[in-house]
Amino acid sequence: MTAPAGPAPGLAGKRGLVLGIANEHSIAAGCARHFAAAGARLAATFLNARAEPFVRAVTGPLGAELVLPCDVSHPGELESVFAAVARHWGGLDFVLHAIAFAPREDLHGRVIDCSAAGFAQAMDISCHSFLRAARLAEPLMAAGGALLTVSFYGSARVVPNYNVMGPVKAALESAVRYLAAELGPNQIRVNALSPGPIRTRAASGIAHFDELMEQTAATTPEHHLAEIDDVGALAAFLAGDGAQRITGTVIPIDGGAHVLA
Ligand code: NAD
User: Fold this and answer.
1) Which residue's CA is the closest to the ligand 1 atom numbered 5?
2) Domain limits at 193?
3) Residue 83 within any structural domain of the chain
4) Residue 18's pLDDT is what?
């Protein structure tokens, strides 16, 4: 066997869509920075006019070619984003989906008390939107591609105060496996990144999140919490050809917290 020639493949020439930047602290922002540093061309979205300047502060320096509005709960908006991508690039190589939402009253209550409407909304925005993004990406990925989403170990273990997002992330991780099986024949890979707790806007909606961060930092084998750049480094690898046989996985980026009982 000979050693592989040259440096590990980056993302030069690849076109990626980043869904879920809210501001510079977003996990999607850390990923976008790593995608751009690896040579990718980027498109990104913002939730609404209030978020737009914060998103542009991230995407501007990265030279994002498209920055478009997208609230996945508004019918047609996600479709419009993919239509714009198709017009601009004629194809797509990877998508990062880093979107989650649950209504505050349901997120802060027991899972058993979650309203049907709140459960449906959390599932629609945080999970079904990934299925829709995958369906819209599929025809644009004629030469194969990579779909990434972001989960949390509250999917598999009971994490205090994570509440309804636990079942929602469990569904998202299951969706990753089914999509990987369905899209594998098209060489479209599907994976989830699963970071430990990171202080972001979405995380601030979870009660006692600071305590979770402190406790995780104290007990995790590395005694360090994951940061958005750690997630970005893995995302850039998974988006690239170096990860071409990796699909259907949920990969922890948590300093080893997932090995603890
Ligand atoms: P964030 O607040 O920076 O990002 C969440 C994003 O979801 C925002 O950009 C927001 O605009 C978007 N969003 C919410 N509702 C939307 C809608 N209807 N349409 C379109 N976009 C919508 O927080 P984050 O922590 O970077 O979250 C990104 C992902 O990472 C989420 O899936 C979250 O569950 C996951 N995650 C976060 C942590 C953590 O500790 N922060 C840990 C593991 C997983």
Assistant:
1) 99
2) 15-255
3) yes
4) 99
Residue 110 lies in a domain: yes
Instruction: Write down the pTM of the prediction.
Output: 0.97
Query: Which CATH number covers residue 250?
Result: 3.40.50.720
When pLDDT is cut at 50, 70 and 90, the band that residue 261 belongs to is confident
Q: Whose CA is nearest to atom 20 of ligand 1?
A: 71
Q: Is 73 in the pocket of ligand 1 (CB under 6 A)?
A: yes
Phi and psi, residue 58, nearest 5°: -85, -45
- 178 is known as an active-site residue: no
* Residue 260 within a domain: no
169 is catalytic: yes
Question: What gap in Å lies between CA 242 and CA 14, rounded to an integer?
Answer: 13
Alpha-carbon separation of residue 69 from 59, 75, 142 (angstroms): 13, 13, 25
Phi/psi for 236 (5° steps) reads -65, -40
Instruction: Determine if ligand 1 sits within 6 Å of the CB of residue 125.
Output: yes
Of 48, 70, 73, 150, which is best to mutate to test ligand 1, by the most ligand atoms within 8 angstroms of its C-beta?
150
Q: Which atom of ligand 1 is nearest to the CA of 28?
A: 26
Q: Structurally, how many domains does the chain consist of?
A: 1
Per residue in 136-164, pLDDT (tens digit) is 999 999 999 999 999 999 999 999 999 99
The angle at the Cα of 66, spanning 232 to 24, to the nearest 5 degrees, equals 40
Atom of ligand 1 nearest to the CA of 203: 41
DSSP lists the bridge partners of residue 17 as 43, 95
Domain membership of residue 141 (yes or no) is: yes
Is the per-residue pLDDT at 107 higher than 70? yes
